[in-house]
Structure formats: C-alpha cells, structure tokens
Amino acid sequence: MNDSHRPIIWKNHELFLLDQRILPHKEEFIPVRNIDDCIQAIKDMVVRGAPCIGFTAIYGIALWVKQLTDLTVESARKAADAMIGARPTAVNLSYEANRCYEIIRIALKDGKSKEQIYDQLVEHGSCQIEESEEKNTVMAEIGIAELKKKYPSKKWNLMTHCNTGFLACGSLGTALGVISLAHRKGHVEHVYADETRPYLQGSRLTAFELGKENIPYSIVVEGAASYLLSHGKVDAIFVGADRIAANGDTANKVGTATLAIVAHHYRIPFYVVAPVSSFDITLAHGKEIEIEMREMNEITEFRGQRIAPVGAISVNPSFDVTDHQLITGIICERGLINPAVKGDLVRVVKS
Ligand code: MRU
Fold first, then answer.
1. Which one of 242, 249, 280, 320 is the catalytic residue?
2. Residues 30 and 61 in one domain
3. Closest CA to 248 of 347, 138, 130, 111
4. Domain boundary among 130, 162, 185
5. Residue 327: how many CA atoms within 13 Å on its side-chain side?
6. Active site residue 242
C-alpha cells in the first residue's frame, strides 16, 4: 500500500495527516507537531472517521509523552480527557485515549522510563492500524457471504452513506471494505454513494475511493433513497458506525437513520459494519449516545460562501441513531450480530 492510501503516516517520530478537508482535488499531508495540533486536527476533521480518529489519538498522546518533562498518572488522565473532548460521538476516540492512559498508568507503576512509554505507545498505534486491515478483511468476507446467500446468482447493486473506506478506517475500510472486496471478487454491478450533507463525505471522499478502485458508482442525494429503493435499484445497504449501544442501536453519520427507515419500508437489507472498538456496551440503548452538534456555517455556507439568507440559522447534528430493529445485521470482526436477538451483541463483545 502506498502513502496515498494512508490517511495517517507516522515516520521518523513525526505524525502526518492527509488533509481530508481538501480532498478530492488536492492530496496534501499536514504535520502534527504536538497534542494540541492533534486535537485541533480531529476537531477540524483534517482526519475523520471513527477508527482513524482513534488511531490518530494514540500518536497524539505519544507525542505528548515525548515532549513532556514530568509524566504523571494525573497529567496522563488530563491529556486523555482533552483528546476525548475533541469529538464526542465516535467511541473509538475515547476507547483509544483510555487505552493509552492505561498503558501509561501501568508503565509508570512498573517504573518504566518516559522513553520506554513513548515507544510502547507508538508501537500500540502501529499495531492498531495493522490489525485494522485484518479485521476489515474479515468483516468484508462476512458481508460478502451474507449477500451470496441472499443473491446467489446476480451481481449486486449496493448503497452506502458517508465515508467508511481507508480514509476513515485504515486499510480497506469497513462498510466500504465490503463493497471494495465484493468488487474485486466480481460481484458488484453498481454502487450508489450518498452525497452525505452537509460535509459531503460521500461525494468528496467515498466517490474518490470508489474511483481509485474503478468501481462503477453514482453519487445520489440522500433524498433520492426512496426513489432508488422503490424502483429496485438497490439490493443491499452497508453503512459504518460511530458508536453502537448494547441493544444494537447505532449512531452513524446524520442521514443514516432516515435511510434505514426507507430501507425497512421497502424491505432492503440494511447492514452496519464496524469493529468491536466502535461498540459501547456501557450504554443500554441509543438514546444515551451523545450526538455531536457542529457549527451552523457547515449548512448555511459552502466553503466560506454564504448560501442561506444572512441571519438564517441552522441545526447541525452530525450523527443520528438508527433503531436496532431497522438493522438486518451488524458485522464485526467476531461475526454477524442479529440485533433482533436480545443480548446477541453483548454476547459477541464478551466472547
Ligand atoms: O464526521 P465524520 O466524517 O468523522 O463521520 C464519521 C464517519 O465517518 C461516519 O459516520 C462513518 O459512517 C462511520 S466511521 C467509519
């Protein structure tokens, strides 16, 4: 895999992030020099997507350890919490920041030096990114096996929302990983990529990734879902997740729940694809998931140019929660979860 397929590069003790704000027309990496830069890059969505913001956080905390003079358990807790505060909905961020905190806490107790702790964190970051490739491949195979059962003798027309490819999840991707691998195996007829307003992850990033792999695709506005699904244009839908509660309710990019409702109406299989690190079984259901509210100008302006009347306001929830009853299956690296079966998700997490 070359560097243009990596949104996060760690080289010679330095962190570089592919600036996803200016894709697809410019591919530029920006240096992240310290933990504050890292937190800002996550807030500004230079790097985005639940798994990738988790990986980035690990390197941000490693940089913080390297640059500190006095490393303590208390200061480590504060650094992890500052990182977690960057974006609230994707659990991968707190999952990784808390794991870094634990690594530091145990290492300090064991009398390890700052240099050793730094090395350990860097090693942890690289391992997580490497392992994500294996996990994503396992999930993609499960998704393909599912569709082979449902549609054994035709090529598939698939739909996705937001961006869940390598830019968001490391190699291959999650929901987009199913689509990419299915395409490589010759199963895909066409892909519909939701534009994903207001940030346009679909038309900017998913289309960019589909194009890189020569996968036939069309960009559609979210409002076209009913048209497409009622006209038999879509065989199955695959989306990612930012946080999945114990009962299977799933927070994902705003618009996902609307799509799931339409899919349920037209009986189109609707799958969520996400690693176990996106699960949060401390939350009983989706109502407990904190939804990030972003700036109004993401809606009222386009790239700095005012669209809405001066003075118009907007409400900009960045995510919504899909009721588990609308989800056909949740695919993770440990298998396929049936959200209709009470306790199935918790069983898989604890397995
Ligand atoms: O706001 P973003 O772009 O960071 O959104 C997160 C996402 O990429 C999506 O919600 C995605 O579907 C789940 S994370 C792979």
1. 242
2. yes
3. 347
4. 130
5. 30
6. yes
By alpha-carbon position, which residue is closest to atom 11 of ligand 1?
A: 240
Residues whose CB falls within 8 Å of the CB of residue 108, separated by 6 or more in sequence, listed in order? 71, 72, 73, 76, 117
Final residue belonging to a domain, choices 114, 130, 146:
130
Which pTM value belongs to this model? 0.95
> Residue 241's domain is classified under what CATH number?
3.40.50.10470
Which of 196, 206, 253 best tests ligand 1's pocket when mutated (most atoms within 8 Å of CB)?
Answer: 253
Joined together, the tokens standing for residue 122 give: 């860097």
Buried b (16+ CB within 10 A) or exposed e, 318-335: bbbbbbbebbbbbbbbbe
**Structural domain boundaries, residue 169:** 135-350
Q: Both 285 and 327 in a single domain? A: yes
Are 154 and 284 members of one domain?
yes
150 and 167 in a single domain? The answer is yes
Same domain, 169 and 314: yes
Tens digit of each residue's pLDDT (9 = 90 or more) over 156-170: 999 999 999 999 998
Per residue in 25-62, pLDDT tens?
Answer: 999 999 999 999 999 999 999 999 999 999 999 999 99
Give the number of the atom of ligand 1 that is nearest the alpha carbon of residue 163. 8
List, in sequence order, the alpha helices (H) in 68-164: 73-84, 91-109, 114-150
User: Is 205 within 8 Å of 167 (Cβ atoms)?
Assistant: yes
Mutate to test the pocket of ligand 1, among 163, 204, 206, 290 (most ligand atoms within 8 A of CB): 163
Q: How many domains does the chain have?
A: 2
Distance 70 CA to ligand 1 centre (A): 35
Residue 125 shares a structural domain with residue 139: no
How many Å apart are CA 52 and CA 312, to the nearest integer?
Answer: 34
